[in-house]
Amino acid sequence: MYVTDLDRRIVLWNRKAEEITGHKAADVIGKACHENILVHIDKDGHKLCTTKLCPLYRAMNLNKATRSPAIIYARCADGHRIGVSVDSSPMHDAGGKVIGGIETFSDSTEQVRNLEFAKQIQQNLFSETAH
Fold it and tell me: Fewer CB within 10 Å, N or C, the chain?
């Protein structure tokens, strides 16, 4: 999990985020999540963090949490990508004003592997029926 301000500068980065991504809190606090940290992309390689498609950006600007987790790909400290299941929510002050966002994520490597395997099976089935 991590917490950002309205500019998506990281103000809190928990131990589990360090474990999953290899990014240390000391290296990311004060930086925007898209500043060569997570740099989320979708399954087709399209950047999300620098667009209005960013789940955290959308949660804060629409003032509503994501309805269900999305699988996106985060950049780890060593540069490789990892599939993560992401939930994003706006964070409010005592008066209800949006002051930042919270993103929770979990390693979805196994789920992504299973989806890729299912995709291969479907492709093989369709190619066999075409012959």
Answer: C
In order of their start, the domains of the chain are: 2-129 (3.30.450.20)
pTM of structure: 0.81
Cα distance between residue 66 and residue 64, in whole Å:
7
Angle (CA) 123 128 131, round 5°: 130
DSSP-derived secondary structure letter, 76:
P
Cα(5)–Cα(11) distance, rounded to whole angstroms? Answer: 7
Query: For residues 69 and 55, what is the distance between their CA atoms, to the nearest angstrom?
Result: 10
Please give the full DSSP string across 5-65, using - where no structure is assigned: ETT-BEEEE-HHHHHHH---HHHHTTSBTTTTT---B-TT--B-TTSTT-HHHHHHHHT--
Distance CA 86, CA 73 (A): 10
Residue for token pair 């360090």: 18
